[in-house]
Task: structure prediction
Amino acid sequence: MTALIDTSFLLATVAPHDQNHALAREALRTIKSGQRIAAPVLTDSDYTRMDAIMRQYRDARFDLADAAQMALAERLDVRQVYTFDRRDFRLFKPAHCDALDLLP
Result:
């Protein structure tokens, strides 16, 4: 199973002073699934879905990076997201499953 790696998780793994550093490093050692990080290059359909997500959740003010992760999760049928930015991902109702599995 593939898991997405969110920016908050990725930064915590390399920043020793981050409050989640130890947890992120431990989780990184135990990830058994494939790992994906959203790249700046996305497909046209991803941008279309990102726009739809950001419009649907306008009041929540999702940022571009989170919307990219959400669109990729749907397109790639990914359910696991490693993140410490749980607020936005908890609000999001993906089209491909009931909810995303937020880790660690």
